[in-house]
Sequence to fold (351 residues):
Amino acid sequence: MQPIRIGIIGCGVIAPTHAACYRQHPAQAQLTWACDLDPARAGALAEKFEIPQTTTDYRQLLAAADVDLVSICTDHASHAPIACAALDAGKHVLCEKALAHQTEGLDAMLQAAERHPGQVFAGVFQHRHEPVNQMLRDIIQSGALGTMLTAAMQIRCWRSPAYYRGDAWRGTWAQEGGAVLINQAIHYVDLLQWLMGGVRTVSGTYANRAHQDCMETEDAVTAALTFASGAVGTLEATCASHLSWEPTLHFHGTEGSIELRNNHPVKLLFRDAAVQAGVQARFETHTEEATRFGKAYYGAGHAAQITDVLRAIAEGRAPFVTARAAGATVDLVLGVYESHRTGRAVTLAAR
Ligand SMILES: NC(=O)c1ccc[n+]([C@@H]2O[C@H](COP(=O)([O-])OP(=O)(O)OC[C@H]3O[C@@H](n4cnc5c(N)ncnc54)[C@H](O)[C@@H]3O)[C@@H](O)[C@H]2O)c1
Fold:
């Protein structure tokens, strides 16, 4: 079989992680184009990963016959126009989070996906692919926690003024669509809603407490959630904390509780001794994926997600994280912002 030919659009911080993951599959994947508005960035990625062609115009890449799949690694606001154009040009698409920064863009992307049902359209949420989160989903779905009561997610991290001043799109409503919630916290918002089986209503609020001199969006956010199951929960995030990168996830049911910090269990408590022993054994024996590209907190999921996308294309099936699934988390994030602005709880539309 011919390798799947790949064009990477956006050659900044995350692009080398995508390129390195594709390069793990020399027989199945071939990097053919690197595109960036800044030719030096496109050139640097091309040189490092031996990509033969570069351009500053993504439309040139989309018109090329030697591209089957595009990895979209640009700022949030450009995801929708690039993904729609790529799907209409007949390409498969893997788009970085956040899939979109506004509802209109997300709607357009999902409509484009409907126009091209034979093409793979995946949204990056690499943490769904990590063994610990797959196991967590398995345990929650098995009913081991009983009737779900509450679930919570917190993430504390630090983004400096230099980070926001360094790239014009960061910390803006127009291009990033927010800050800590839509960029850093979105990974754990996604895990919370995916592991709990979806969110129905959200009531949120946000503030800019420590970044007023360098960006216009939020550096602190909280929200109360009602899950589709009827359970309730909360999310809380800040990028103004010197605790660095510290995500926590809590799940509490009538029969048991699981609490994780930085992917490690800090509480596993079940009423039934046999269930307790079984869950504990699973956490003790499961192994994390060893292959990591990029910063440590990206986790190892990109490699697994890119492997899945390549297989989905080869097998003519849907990817593990479809654009529609990734879009549900965008809806939740945008619901938090809308709730703050209107002062009302937002009911999320079923997609
Ligand atoms: N999954 C993860 O763990 C993870 C980690 C970091 C970033 N990201 C996501 O990846 C995306 C990019 O983030 P980044 O930190 O690499 O940003 P970045 O600013 O470092 O890089 C983005 C690049 O895209 C280019 N670009 C913008 N518009 C373009 C266009 N129309 N055509 C061609 N190039 C264009 C810019 O010139 C820039 O070089 C964002 O969606 C971000 O949220 C995901």
Notes: Residues 9-14, 35-38, 41, 58, 73-76, 78, 96-97, 124, 126, 167, 183, 298 surround nicotinamide-adenine-dinucleotide (CB under 6 Å). The two ends are 36 Å apart (CA to CA). The CA atoms of residues 271 and 323 lie 38 Å apart.
